[in-house]
Amino acid sequence: MRTAARLSPEHPTRHAHSTPNPFTGGSAQAAIRISARPPPRDRPLRCTDAVSRQFTPRDTRTLQSRNEPSGREFSLEIPHAVEKLTQLAEQKVNLSCGLGNNGGVSTATATSTAPVHPVVNRPNTTTVGFIVWLSSELMFFAALFAMYFTIRSVVPQMWETETAKHDVVFASINTSILVLSSVTCQLGVFKAEHFKPRRTGGLMNIGSWGMIEWYYLSFILGSIFIGGQVYEYATLVSEGIAINSNAYGSVFYLTTGFHGLHVLGGLIAFLLVIGRAHAAKRFGHREATFAICMSYYWHFVDVVWVGLFFVIYILM
Asked: Is 20 contained in some domain?
């Protein structure tokens, strides 16, 4: 039995592989036509041109089978093998041309995408906890204010004589210094939010200051306020207003004294923030959060003192 492929004069065959036939004693010619002519130069190279040159004579040798029982079965399997090799070659060329396994045919695949959920920006837990703690401090000072107004309502005549001993001008200057320290603290917060802990220029160039420089200035102003309050205490004691002299003295020193202790705590917190900024290799989110929480506390202390100043020195 003979299986032969016709040879075209325009496309000569490079090799023709012959296989013996056990039935006829002859040989079955299995010829695979492979185009050796390159594509014309007047048109661009197409993927189909590469398919025609995909096979080589070495590929046709794989079609031989030494263990075939008969030439009939072998001759029937040759077309199937050639067709399979042709499909593999087309897939390879399609992949190289960017067409995928399906060539130029576009396919639609069903893809399931997860629903997009809105992103929830949760507040910083450290900031929330600090604000809750400040709320408890607010309740503490509210109790002090209630004590002050209660005793004043019971013995109003005492306020007529004792309040005249206060130096309102000095207290106003001391209050202005504390309020100014709150402004410098907020300027330091702006630098901390931009992760600028240190100055970028000279010390006298205020515009180049970082968080550390502004917090140092706030610490100095807060220390001046504490010094002024100590001086006022010494003056009032010399004039006969002590914590154990009368009800007014007790109320005055309790309210302003607890506030002074909170200011001292704020000064210590300033040093902790500055020391942490110096110790950190990289000023990051945690250091900035610590500095911002410190500013909350300092603003709270300033607001409380403004209320105390209005009640004690203005409403005399």
From this structure: yes
